[in-house]
Design brief:
single chain, alpha+beta, five-stranded mixed beta sheet
Length: 476
């Protein structure tokens, strides 16, 4: 059933829901109406039985005397039952009645009523009254037995078949009305669903147009202010904006990467072509002395290493979320210590002074170590021979602060706002090896872990890289 429902279109589901809701309401209303009418009929019959039986029981002798003269039963008007017999006004009760003496003789309407066990208990004084359903001549009656004045009992019975026929006719009319109402609800439901889904259809057409044209610069039209369709439209526009921003960033990354890759590739190509030319024409070997050949090979090795570093950093920078490791509680002090050990082997001429306090953060260990290594590499690159790189890690206020300070020439104030941009290299750094991606990876990794990265001058000289990350809380 669930599969069948989910295979229906939204239009069909809304139509069925509207039709079902109206059908339930109509059927419930018809059932309540039928039950109410049946209750009213039952109370009317019981009230008529009680009034007629009490009228006969009050003056049984007069009713005995008229039993053979007024067939079909006689009742009293609302103002009668008191005074001399001449003041009684006969009317057709639509009921059968009889009076049973104390010795069991019945006098009354044509067609005697049955003296049931409950009626005998009233006759014997063991019950005050008896109301029961009986069958007379194949018809169903409701009979009431009351004690009569002077002894004996009075029995009055009313045929319930006319009321039942009336109730059946009403039921048929209600059933026809329900069928017509449900059919109308089905048609109305289709119309309501069609009208209600017009904004959704327009939104779907707009999204399909964007999908076909790949034009993310034009938002889908949004009508309304606070309804759900307008909210959906705004959400789609937000999604399109995010996709457009991501695509622009991807395009910028590819363009910048292409520009940065072109320089080492051009240098490598030039050097390789020169070496190949000498190999193909040995007579030109004198033009490339051994020391110059060694310099070219060293330059090739340097360019290849730079190209490998740039490629690795590009992969780190553009890595998708789906391929990243799972976040977990990480001992950041241990990560920083491992990163310091790695960079110390690459920069043996520097002193690394580390003061690390135990701190636990939630993150990805590999990315965090890469972030710290990049920060340390940057400090090592700018530190003078024999210089000191100071690394401190301190917790406080729900955050921890990692500081990497060097004693290099520092960063010009004009360059500080851009040092975390991809491929940005200050004028003073263009003669140094590097890709311009190290600090960009630091800033991106810090942001992905809920933190920040900043640079500031180090007194009396140098630069301080500060990374702030939220401390892991087991209850969060």
């Amino acid at each position: 059933m669930t599969g069948w429902w989910h295979r229906r279109t939204l239009h069909a589901r809304l139509s069925l829901l509207v039709t079902g809701a109206v059908a339930v309401a109509v059927l419930a209303g018809a059932g309540v109406a039928l039950a109410a009418v049946a209750g009213i009929q039952r109370r009317q019959i019981e009230q008529q039985l009680t009034v007629d039986a009490q009228a006969i029981a009050a003056q049984p002798e007069q009713w005995k005397a008229s039993a053979g003269q007024l067939p079909g039963g006689i009742g009293l008007g609302p103002d009668e039952g008191h005074g001399p017999p001449g003041h009684r006004r006969p009317r057709d009760l639509g009921a059968r009645w009889q009076i049973v003496d104390a010795d069991g003789r019945a006098v009354g309407d044509a067609g005697a009523l049955p003296l049931t066990g409950a009626a005998r208990q009233v006759l014997d004084g063991r019950r005050s009254s008896a109301r029961e359903a009986v069958t007379i001549d194949g018809a169903g009656y409701l009979m009431l037995t009351l004690p009569a004045s002077g002894g004996g009992v009075v029995q009055v019975a009313i045929d319930r078949d006319p009321a039942r026929r009336t109730l059946a006719q009403l039921g048929l009319l209600l059933a026809a009305g329900c069928a017509a109402g449900i059919a109308g609800a089905a048609l109305l439901g289709r119309a309501v669903a069609r009208a209600g889904l017009v904004p959704v259809q327009r939104l779907a057409e707009a999204v399909e147009d964007v999908t076909a044209t790949l034009d993310l610069t034009h938002p889908v039209p949004v009508a309304g202010a606070d309804d759900d369709i307008a909210r959906l439209g705004r959400s789609v526009n937000t999604l399109l904006g995010a996709i457009d921003a991501s695509r622009r960033a991807q395009r910028a990354l590819v363009e910048d990467a292409g520009h940065e890759l072109r320089t080492p590739l051009t240098s490598i190509r030039t050097n390789v072509e020169l070496l190949l030319a000498v190999e193909r024409r040995p007579e030109l070997a004198h033009r490339l002395p051994p020391q110059e050949r060694a310099r070219l090979l060293a330059d090739l090795e340097s360019q290849v290493a730079e190209l490998a570093t740039l490629t690795t950093e590009l992969v780190e920078l553009a890595r998708e979320e789906t391929s990243r490791e799972e976040a977990e509680p990480v001992d950041l002090a241990g990560v920083v210590a491992a990163a310091v050990a790695r960079v110390r082997t690459r920069a043996p001429g520097l002193i690394f002074a580390a003061g690390l306090e135990p701190v636990t953060v939630e993150g990805r260990p590999g990315e965090l170590e890469r972030m710290v290594v990049n920060g340390l590499d940057n400090a090592a690159k700018w530190s003078p021979p024999g210089g000191t790189v100071t690394v401190t890690l301190r917790p406080g206020g729900g955050y921890c602060e990692l500081r990497v300070a060097d004693a290099g020439p520092g960063i010009d104030e004009a360059d500080r706002p851009h040092v975390f941009d991809r491929f940005y290299r200050a004028t003073a750094a263009r003669s140094m090896p590097g890709s311009g991606l190290g600090l960009a990876i630091v800033a991106q990794t810090a942001a992905q872990h809920g933190g920040t990265a900043a640079v500031a001058p180090n007194e009396p000289r140098g630069t301080v890289l500060t990374i702030r990350l939220p401390v892991f809380s087991p209850g969060s």
